[in-house]
Amino acid sequence: MKRRDFIAGAGALTALPWLAGCTPAAPLVTVLRPGLREGHALREAATLPPPSGELRCGVAILGSGVAGLTAAWRLAREGRRDVLLVDGPEPDGNAAGSLLGGIACPRGAHYLPLPDPGLAHVRELLADLGVLTGGLRDDAPEYDEQALVHPAAERTLADGIWHEGLLPTSTAADAAAAARFSADMTAWSARRGDDGRPAFALPLAASSSDPALRTLDRQTFSRWLEEAGHTHPPLRHYIDYAMRDDYGARPDRVSAWAGLHYFCCRRGRARNAEAGAVLTWPQGLSALTAGLRRAAAVRTLSGHAVALNERRAAVELMVQTADRRSVTLVADRVICAMPLHVARHIDPALAAALPREALPETAPWLVANLLLDGFPHERAGADLAWDNVVLGGQGLGYVVATHQLTRVARPAATVFTAYRAGWGDAGEARRWLASAGEADLLEFALADLDAAYDRRWRHRLNAVELVLRGHGMAIPTPGFLDAPARALRDRGGRVLHAHADLGGLSLFEEASWWGERAACQLLG
Amino acid sequence: MLPQSRSTPDLHDSATPGTDAGRHHPGLIVAVFVVASCGLAYELIAGALASYLLGESVLRFSTIIGTYLFAMGVGSHLSKYVDEKALLARFIDIELMVGLLGGLSACALFLIYAWAGSPFRVSLYALVLLIGVLVGMEIPLVMRLLHQRKQAFEALVSRVLTFDYLGALAVSLLFPLVFAPLLGLARTAVVFGLLNAGIGLWLTHRYRAELPQARALKLRGLLVLAVLLAALAWAQKLTDAAEAGLYGDSVVHRETTPFQRIVLTRWQDDTRLYLNGNLQFSTRDEHRYHEALVHPALAALPQARRVLVLGGGDGLAVREVLKYPQIEQVTLIELDPAMTRLFRDTDALAALNAHALRDPRVTTVNADAAQWLETAAGPGWDLIIADFPDPSHYALGKLYAVPMYRLMARHLAPGGLIVVQSTSPWYAPRAYWCVDATLREAGLHTAPYHASVPSFGDWGFLIAGREAGYRPPSALPAGLRHLDARTLAQMFDFPPDMRAPAVEPNRLNTQMLVHYFEEDWSRQMR
């Protein structure tokens, strides 16, 4: 058997990486700004056409992100059939998906870590959708291997070479710093507060309220890292990446408690996967929102609520439908599953209870789906992985949408999804995102790929879908644990709130927990 | 790319003011331009060739550039030992030597790679070092020549460096855009060698009055020119021969498709197919492989009417399937249209599969078999033949994982069977038995067996079905060359040194099979 790859398909020319050819044809760019028009119309209290009809329902769920859909799923499971889901301006929220050139890809979040037994609602939901296939209550259940991330999962570009994994370990100093940090995080993961609860858990509400631990929320994560001696630059690049990825801000803006929570809250295991495995789908978490919609089989109204009035006997809502009509909706109960800064504009009671300053700061988020007619030429080191991160890069790397497929040969076309968050000051970043031209947005989105590949990769770029969210996620700044929004969980009445904003971490598990909680409260 | 003047550290030693700035020496300046072009060209050729043959292009390029620049530094240093009186003659000698060595470098490396194998790296870097030293001497010598001819130092340096850089620019653009694609690496090297030799000859002629041994120099120059011209004529044949050397036999067909490199070789009555350099079959013994792949399962299924073949665009498995007159439909799923076209429409190759792909019972679908199975509908298949490439990396490993076998099982008719080519139970025992464990994990009953295929060694297959109770058939179709009832029975026997080791099934997210396969084979390749 000849094992030398004499002809690798590439000619001698492909071995000359510095030779860029002519300028590539400009790709077809689509810019999406989900919720922008609707949100700003609410802010400016735009006048509405008079209502053209009236609808009634038992429960109205406003918003179809993970919180709203989990609530709908739970209510359906418990036999409630009088539920109406008002989709909101961005169906599936941060878990939305897309289809680009016939290839399924995420328009938002793309993976879910294995849930530990404390996340019973997530496990139950996964079992219902056929993702968790056995041992629901076991410490390590079995999952559909199609959804468990396939190797190679991650790689990092450092010093011009791709390395396996995300934590930089290529030099002895890197490895030592990484080992010290990992050991420290393992110790913190095992730590419990004086109330016997884990220091860091999901849902957030399951974390210990030990004041000794909560003091971590008074300082920034970068300060904590300095004090703990985690200062090795490549390690800090990795931590910086992790914070921007999940929290939309750098460690100097993030609460130390939240920073530690990121590294210490995940204890989920699987019978048929290694520790630290994640669940993922070509279309990202929209596989789960689609599954929840199917399982809930809920009546859905395409449109968004623009006004909410809680009356003694019912809640009166004004809904603007997707075809620009106004409809009055009268519901016994309402689950308001939208971001708090939007909810304030339609619910005067909430606006009174929660002043603007009390809202969590939010970070803008850019998701770029890049349709490529072929895989770009790779540089030296580890092969293309599912998640590809440029250490110290401007963006958050890119994910390969076709990674989970089984194919005899590499598909002729693929989608790379590039992410960016946590650049600059959140307010300025948001303003830039709102005003930047298409060409500037494109360059901004492609920064990491330009760093990863030689210039010719752009010849492969066929179409681009840029998804811009001005308020992509709440930033857990120091003090976020005591944010007033959290008090909304105990707000009685006909209107219940369900959104990750209430806890302050924009995570699937959190959003889902708030949805679950609202549904259970409503069911009594 | 660095032009060669970067490595002329002794430039300042010759800083004596010139007197006769008015006299020009266009010949020497043209020489600088050509010399600079050629110097860069050899470096590019060596780098391109190394990454072409060895891969790891970044590593290859940077080490070759490094070696080359270092060698040029050595050359610059050595240049000071050249006798002032014989400067021009030595410069011409160096031009001829560079022309000869550089011009033949690509051909030589191709040949060494094809026939010698391991000394390739040593030869590569030695050659780069040698050419680098010679090229490194060129510019310092030209400078001294011009200096001898009373050129003002400022003008001299600026003019030499200008043409040095211009030459580098010209070649850095022409090499990838014109020379490499048009001529190929071997002939490009020869063309640049001719330029070097040409400069040597021309200078000999131009300055014949100053040169004491002009005749001898000219003779040497013409000899080099003749050798290079011969090389130019033979370069293509030489690289073909090198490729043939690599495959052992003469190449009768080569084609690069969007999916792979197809090479067919023939020596006497033996035709071989290589895909991306990996042997797929040899006509000497392919009947052993394909009879073993098809008959143990199909002869046990007298009710079989419909057969699905996944992979195997050469049609050889289909040829065996068509030996059963009751078969009504064979569907072949082959990714590469070039493969099915080649083995259906080329008479010499279609003869190998007895024109199976032209049989009206056969439908050929050019699609990715895994994708096709995901969406395929229709009645179940009595036999599914999975003839996929070996699980040498993660993407291919998925074709041998539990979900793929569950998917295949869903496409089976009642009582139907799957047969899987599953690497060598002798060379890669854990990989082979991992496929067995994976089929069983998918809820199937398996029957492991193996056959001796001299080109591959002891090769393994697995028959799997939803129901237990597979029995090797007692009757086989007529016209088989290898299988009879006795050999068939022996195939299911695994002697004590081939017993199944304990292995885990292959899952999409762990890909144990790829690890087993790599480890088992690397132990064989030691």
Main β-sheet, spatial strand arrangement of chain A: 1-20-16-19-18-17-9-10
Mean pLDDT of chain B: 86
CATH class of the domain at 36-100 and 282-358 and 481-523 in chain A: Alpha Beta
Termini separation of chain B (Å)?
A: 38 Å
Unreliably modeled segments of chain A:
1-22
Tell me which protein chains meet in the greatest interface and how many residues each side has: A-B, 43 and 59 residues
CATH architecture of the largest domain in chain B: Up-down Bundle
**Rg value of chain B:** 32 Å
**Remind me, CATH topology of the largest domain in chain B?**
Growth Hormone, Chain: A
Instruction: Estimate what percentage of residues of chain A fall within beta strands.
Output: 15-25%
Average predicted local confidence, pLDDT of chain A: 92
**Can you write the helix and strand succession of chain B as a string?**
HHHHHHEEEEHEHEHHEHEHHEHEEHH
- CATH architecture of the domain at 36-100 and 282-358 and 481-523 in chain A, please? 3-Layer(bba) Sandwich
Overall morphology of chain B = elongated
Q: What count of helical segments of chain B does DSSP give?
A: 16
Report the CATH topology name of the domain at 36-100 and 282-358 and 481-523 in chain A. FAD/NAD(P)-binding domain
Bulk shape of chain A: globular
How big is the Rg of chain A?
23 Å
What's the arrangement of strands in the largest beta sheet of chain B? 7-6-5-8-9-11-10
Query: In the CATH hierarchy, what is the superfamily of the domain at 36-100 and 282-358 and 481-523 in chain A?
Result: FAD/NAD(P)-binding domain
